[in-house]
Design a protein that fits this description.
The protein has 283 residues and is an alpha/beta fold. It has helices at residues 67-75, 115-125, 132-145, 161-174, 191-208, 219-225, 256-282, and strands at residues 25-35, 40-51, 56-60, 82-87, 90-91, 99-102, 179-183, 212-216, 228-233, 238-244. Bound molecules: adenosine-5'-diphosphate (ADP) and magnesium ion.
Length: 283
């Protein structure tokens, strides 16, 4: 759908091929800093990218490259010192129910509420539903989508890590946000559950074609989950390249094309490490 664009440094919007539709999320030249007592930490430097409707847009990069910082900024919790983020044309200034976040941690559910109540609570409080029976119906629809119908009245502490993540995903999707933000949602799961969750996420996407911004530090996961992958380099986090990965998913895992793309990405990320090593040796 979108042509392969490879850029280094800040993305230049004029170099991209003309797009038929406006982006849902337009991130332009975004620099985000943390001020501590002693330091000013530049977490991201002039980062730019665009997420279009039904994109599975992945931000990939090593730990500390500013992935979570970017998501928190899209969510409206952190504000850029330079550049801007626009959601459906409006500058992001505060959190809103049009952006829902799914985290890595298993404790993101309210422990005193059941699976269903966790979802209905979000629906009522997020303003998506004003009546309880409508909220119940929507909650049940999404509980079925993530295959937890037997657990609707169960409390989170009785669920496995994978099941808790399914509830968090169901809750996020039930809100029908303009964009679903996922920050390494499967990183704390065992390998088999992680693979299963990747498959389920793709099946859910086939079903509803939601727009998702997904963060990971796993190259394999990026290629499986992503239709487009933004590769970032650290200190400070900058865009290194943007690659097309829509041809690849679980079905092509283990195939030549998949492995080639994985190697290409690996080399891009690894190129940085070599340079850093050189600086340490000679600098
Ligand atoms: N609350 C904070 N205060 C100061 N520095 C922070 C804070 N959160 C993150 N950082 C720094 O910002 C950089 C990017 O962090 P983060 O966005 O969490 O990276 P990632 O999610 O890619 O691992 C890191 O250098 C990190 O140490
Ligand atoms: Mg992070």
């Amino acid at each position: 759908m979108h042509s392969e664009v490879t850029t280094t440094g800040a993305a230049d919007p004029t170099s991209a091929a003309p797009k038929p539709d406006a982006p849902i999320l337009d991130v332009e030249g975004v620099t985000i800093q943390y001020k501590t007592k002693e330091h000013l930490i530049t977490a991201t430097y002039r980062v730019g990218f665009q997420v279009f409707e039904a994109d599975r847009f992945v931000i990939l990069g090593p730990s500390g490259c500013g992935k979570s910082t970017l998501l928190k900024s899209v969510a409206g919790y952190l504000h850029p010192v330079e550049g801007e983020m626009r959601l459906n044309g409006n500058i992001v200034t505060e959190p809103g129910p049009d952006r829902v976040m799914v985290f890595q941690e298993f404790d993101q559910l309210l422990p005193w509420k059941t699976v269903k109540e966790n979802i209905t609570f979000a629906l009522m409080n997020g303003g998506r539903c004003s009546n309880k029976s409508e909220a119940n119906d929507i909650a049940m629809e999404y509980i079925q989508k993530v295959k937890l119908e037997r657990f609707e009245d169960t409390y989170p502490h009785m669920l496995s890590g994978g099941m808790k993540q399914r509830v968090a995903i169901a809750r996020g999707m039930a809100m029908e946000p303009a964009i679903l933000l996922m920050d390494e949602p499967f990183a704390a799961l065992d390998a088999l559950t992680r693979r299963q969750m990747q498959e389920e996420l793709l099946a859910l996407w086939e079903d509803t074609k939601f727009t998702v911004l997904f963060v990971t530090h796993s190259i394999e996961e990026a290629v499986i989950v992503g239709s487009r992958v933004l590769i970032m380099s650290p200190h400070p986090g900058q865009v290194k390249a943007e690659l097309n990965a829509h041809e690849h998913s679980i079905a092509t895992l283990g195939g030549d094309g998949f492995a080639e793309l994985q190697t290409k990405i690996h080399n891009m990320i690894f190129a940085d490490r070599v340079l850093e090593d050189e600086v340490v040796k000679h600098g």
